[in-house]
Design goal:
The complex is a heterodimer of chains A (250) and B (323). Helices cover 40% and strands 25% of the residues of chain A. With 250 residues, chain A is of the alpha/beta class. In chain A, helix 3 packs parallel to helix 5. The longest helix of chain A is centred in the C-terminal third of the chain and has 16 residues. Chain B is mainly α. The longest helix of chain B has 28 residues. In chain B, helix 3 crosses helix 12 and helix 12 packs parallel to helix 14. Chain B is built from 16 helices and two strands. The radius of gyration of chain B is 19 Å and the shape is globular. The chains are: A alpha/beta (250), B mainly alpha (323).
Chain lengths: 250, 323
């Protein structure tokens, strides 16, 4: 099993705030890793650190065996890392197709414009917004913008895909569609880390789950192990004994 | 038929410039050539500024610094060193490009209003600097010996030639603008304009792309500067770095529509036409700049994407046709 990503003792501070403390994990190729934790636990910060938006104060990050700790986001994109944002960032004044073409043109495959347009049409079909291709991205609704974020990331044919709360703000049928899409992406051989608050989804989709609380890793393991881990229950519900009582009452 | 439509975004702008180039010959009036010269110069400058302002989304309030700096370098070669006009124009363009490269490395990391302020500072600093350089004649500037025109067949011939050169430079600016707009590099610039952080995450090397956009937007203004001062016969710091001319360029680009190939051309055309009327009317001649100020205000308030942008937003067919 080859390791695609290795995060070793990563620590990130913002002034006096300790956002990440000694975070360490390995991610083998082809897995889906679920990243969960209460609000403010540092999940998005961890993404930003992996992705080069922030640089950690301590620790190392290896991607495909190379040290990428102090690389910029565009270096990592060129190496085959793609991500979506929790708060969508569409390129409003460009068409939906042009948005996706940016992903294909500047990702690690460095496609030409013509090839990128073809890839964009394929990917838009895959995420199910091909009827919007020539619309301006700013005119899409939130669910469509989330799909656009996904399409842009996929168009680069990444090795590693970071999904930041792609299910938030979607309704039930949209969530089911998105989960199916994530499973389809995995069959294409793309490794995924997903941040998600929706437990049902993370538990079903992930091979492994990693839990952060106040910037510290409190648990790591299979979905079943995590669901019964006392520290995780405590982080989400406070006192574990209280949580157990609540469970029994139900 | 479909192929023809695909190129309409460049055909219309080329026709406008070609029309302007032929306009003096058709009308046969001497004044017509001066009018056309001013409009072509405005088209070349506005199209250049558009590469940075319209495609990349960085507002340069002091873009005229490249016109002045390139103009000074070229004019120095022309008047003091006796270098030919062609080489002087070329060197003027290159030196403006170099200046933009160095400035870009320093100030393009600033975003939004901070970058705009820095460009004003650069323009004013350059004016003060040139004012104190003995080599460039200090505050008095440089003058071209009248005999220099003889190499080009006399003053009348030289003026005619200058007109055709400005037309050629307008063509150059247009073609550059079109190729950037339709290239992969251009797509990267548009992505930076829309959201620089998202563009970086998708793999656009924003610092490099911005610097090259700045360089490309500076070359033609430098060349135009050399030509303009050659035609005038002298250069002074006051004429080379007029801040209000920078703002007029912004008005042109915003009026026609930033980020499109055709927009700055229409804007330059309309603005120079309006200005031509205002400076000759009794009532407006002293307050014509306040009219441009009011115009800029109206554009920003009501049609922030300019005339062409307004049309593109409302019609999907036009969006494909008007690059």
């Amino acid at each position: 099993m080859t390791l695609l990503l290795q995060v070793q003792g990563v620590t990130k501070r913002f002034g006096g705030l300790q956002a990440l403390t000694q975070v360490t994990f390995d991610l083998p190729k082809g897995q889906i890793l679920g990243l969960i934790g209460p609000n403010g636990a540092g999940k998005t910060t961890l993404f930003n650190t992996i992705n080069g938006v922030y640089h950690p104060e301590e620790g190392r990050i290896l991607f495909q065996g190379k040290d990428v700790t102090n690389k910029m986001p565009y270096h990592l994109a060129k190496m085959g890392m793609a991500r979506t944002h929790q708060i969508v960032r569409p390129l409003n004044e460009l068409t939906v197709r042009e948005n996706v073409m940016v992903g294909a043109c500047f990702g690690h495959e460095n496609q030409s414009l013509g090839k990128a347009a073809k890839i964009a049409d394929e990917v838009l079909e895959f995420v199910g917004i091909s009827s919007r291709t020539d619309q301006l991205a700013g005119s899409l609704n939130v669910a469509q913008k989330k799909r656009l974020e996904m399409a842009r990331a996929l168009a680069s044919h990444p090795h590693l895909l970071l999904l930041d709360e792609v299910l938030a703000g979607l309704n039930h049928s949209e969530i089911d569609g998105m989960i199916q899409m994530i499973l389809d992406i995995r069959t294409q051989g793309i490794t995924i880390i997903m941040i998600e608050h929706l437990m049902k989804a993370v538990m079903n989709v992930s091979d492994r789950i990693f839990v952060l609380d106040y910037g510290e890793q409190i648990a790591e393991g299979s979905p079943e192990e995590i669901a019964n881990h006392p520290k995780v229950i405590e982080a989400y519900l406070g006192d574990p004994k209280l949580a157990e009582q609540l469970m029994e009452e139900n | 038929m479909k192929n023809w439509k695909q190129y309409i975004g460049i055909i219309v702008p080329l026709l406008v410039v070609a029309g302007l180039m032929l306009y003096p010959t058709i009308t046969g009036k001497a004044a017509a050539r001066e009018t056309a010269f001013t409009i072509l110069k405005a088209i070349a400058l506005a199209s250049s500024l558009n590469i940075l302002l319209g495609y990349t989304g960085y507002v340069s309030f002091g873009h005229i610094v490249f016109f002045g700096f390139g103009g000074y370098v070229g004019f120095y070669l022309l008047s003091v060193q006796g270098v030919s006009l062609w080489i002087s124009i070329l060197v003027g363009g290159i030196s403006s490009g170099l200046l933009a490269f160095l400035l870009g490395k320093a100030i393009l990391r600033l975003r939004g209003a901070y970058f705009a302020l820095a460009t004003i500072g650069v323009n004013e600093a350059m004016r003060a600097f040139i004012n104190n350089i003995e080599l460039f004649g200090g505050p008095i500037g440089l003058t071209l010996n009248f005999k220099a025109y003889q190499a080009y067949g006399g003053a009348a011939k030289a003026l005619e030639m200058a007109f055709y050169i400005v037309a050629a430079l307008a063509f150059l600016a247009l073609i550059m603008s079109y190729f950037i707009r339709t290239s992969k590099f251009g797509l990267g610039l548009l992505a930076i304009r829309e959201n620089e952080d998202a563009a970086e995450v998708m793999g656009v090397f924003a610092p490099d792309a911005k610097t090259w956009a700045y360089v490309l937007s500076a070359i033609v203004p430098g060349m135009i500067g050399v030509l303009f001062f050659f035609k005038n016969g002298n250069v002074e710091p006051h004429d080379a770095f007029p801040l209000h001319a920078s703002i007029e360029l912004l008005v042109m680009v915003m009026l026609g529509g930033q980020g499109t190939v055709l927009g700055p051309i229409l804007g330059a055309f309309a603005y120079q036409g309006m200005r031509g009327y205002l400076v000759t009317s009794d009532f407006f001649k002293d307050i014509q700049l306040s009219v441009s100020g009011a115009l800029l205000l109206m554009i920003v308030l009501f049609i922030p994407s300019g005339a062409i942008g307004w049309l593109r937003q409302r019609n999907a067919v036009l969006r494909r046709v008007l690059a």
